[in-house]
Specification:
Blueprint lengths: L2 H16 L16 E4 L2 E5 L12 H14 L7 H4 L3 H14 L3 E5 L2 H12 L5 E5 L4 H9 L3 E5 L4 H13 L5 E6 L1 E2 L4 E2 L2 H11 L2 E5 L14 H4 L8 E5 L10 E5 L1 H10 L1 H4 L6 H16 L2 H19 L14 E7 L3 H14 L2 E2 L1 E3 L8 E7 L6 H18 L1
Parallel strand pairs: 2-13, 4-5, 4-6, 6-9, 9-10
Antiparallel strand pairs: 1-2, 3-11, 7-8, 10-11, 12-15, 14-15
Helix pairs in contact: 2-12, 4-12, 5-6, 5-10, 7-8, 13-15, 14-15
Bound molecules: pyridoxal-5'-phosphate (PLP).
């Protein structure tokens, strides 16, 4: 009987609206790209995770189209029944070769990968120590495990040490330090060298979710372990195919052979959910081919990021992130009490002028730290980047 539930749910929706937290979805009337169509008209898109511009790349689209003919539309099976095509295992091998790991297991999403990895590897006798800013899927995945949970302040190695001491004092059998490689609201990197040093000292494993790095961070695009020179010291990498690697969907865990073998036997989102669709597998392999063959897109992404930062500094905006080693996630800060309103007004004004950016405020980010999160892409031209900065300046002049 739905009855009273309707009123209760309506009241909850009203609360969300009253708090200004209701999320409205803006429909695109085009492919995902640097230039998109919205109801407000044509817009330059600066809020996708399309870091390398592969979401509508002709080679990726052609591979997916041809896969429909060769491999069909769907798998209608989980992997271990009859849902494994030779291209699924080929993609897993390609990811292992690219990341320099022993083995890889695909999931329908990185949310599922993070949801399925902890419960299998860490039981009651174990401890998981997690950065406070880790992605929601890591938080949920850790909740599913029976291991003791510890949390450390964002990227704070002293606090991580304190938690490691506590976990060792509690006599944990296995300890795993878990971090995002890049924190997506700040565009900041996890301090992986310090984390790996502490892991050695306390005999802990390290898991890195590299969703916002794989494909474009590091000279070869192999992500934050490559950037920090610790690829052989990170035990488990999770990541997504839904951002730089073509942007469709799918995720993976890449690790030691035994870890992956056990996940294939026991990981619930892998065992009990449909295989990644054939066209997505083929498109993702084509994306990896492009990424491995050339660093051009990575170079364009880097120069767009640097250009954006330097023009925004010149224009007097406050940015988060490191100018010496910038990530394409570039938060433009609007601090203080009035910041949330200002950020929203500026983002709205910019969309009116054909530049699509998104404002974030509390509770998505801490109170008083509202921001517009700009995401650069290799698909942007220099003119696009300059147009974005000009739109920021025009919006600020119009609303302040
Ligand atoms: C750090 C991180 N991990 C995991 C995910 C989930 O990835 P997917 O979209 O493949 O489920 C995301 C996506 O937002 C993410 O940013």
């Amino acid at each position: 009987m739905y009855g009273a539930v309707k009123d209760q749910l309506t009241a909850t929706l009203e609360e969300i609206r009253a708090a200004g937290l209701y999320k409205h979805e803006r429909e695109l009337a085009s492919a995902q790209s640097a230039h998109v169509s919205t109801a407000a008209g044509e817009a330059l898109n600066f809020c996708a995770n399309n870091y390398l511009g592969l979401a509508d790349h002709p080679d990726v689209v052609a591979a997916a189209q041809s896969a429909l003919d060769t491999w069909g539309f769907g798998m209608a099976s989980v992997r271990f029944i009859c849902g494994t095509q030779t291209q699924h295992t080929a993609l897993e091998r390609r990811l292992s070769d690219f990341l320099g790991t022993e083995s890889t297991i695909l999931y329908s999403s990185c949310f599922d990968a993070n949801g399925g990895v902890f419960e299998v590897l860490f039981g009651e006798q174990d401890a998981i120590i997690s950065d406070e800013l880790n992605h929601a899927s890591i938080i949920d995945g850790i909740r599913l495990a029976k291991a003791a949970r510890y949390r450390y302040r964002n990227a704070d190695l002293a606090d991580l040490r304190t938690q490691l001491v506590a976990a060792r004092a509690a006599d944990a059998r296995r300890i795993c330090i878990v971090t995002d490689g890049v924190f997506s609201m700040d565009g900041s990197y996890a301090p992986l060298v310090g984390i790996c040093d502490l892991a050695d000292e306390f005999e802990a494993m390290v898991l890195v979710d590299d969703s916002h790095a794989v494909g474009f961070v590091g000279d070869g695009g192999r992500g934050t372990p490559e950037l920090f020179g610790v690829a052989d010291r990170v035990d488990i990498v999770t990541g997504t195919l839904g951002k730089a690697l073509g942007g469709a969907s799918g995720g993976y865990v890449s690790s030691h052979q035994e870890v992956v073998d056990l996940l294939r036997q026991r990981s619930r989102p892998y065992l009990f959910s449909n295989s990644v669709a054939p066209a997505v597998v083929a498109g993702s392999i084509a994306a990896l081919d492009l990424i491995a063959a050339s660093g051009d897109a990575r170079g364009r992404l880097r120069s767009n990021t640097r250009l954006f930062r330097s023009l925004m500094h010149e224009a007097g905006f406050a940015l988060l992130g490191d100018d010496a080693n910038p990530h394409p996630i570039t938060p433009v800060m609007f601090p203080g009490e009035d910041g949330a309103r200002l950020a929203t007004q500026i983002a709205d004004h910019m969309l009116g002028n054909g530049v699509y950016v998104i404002a974030f405020s509390y509770p998505v980010v801490p109170q008083g730290k509202a921001r517009i999160r700009v995401q650069l892409s290799a698909a942007h031209s220099e003119a696009d980047v300059r147009a974005c900065v000009a739109a920021f300046s025009a919006a600020r002049a119009a609303v302040t």
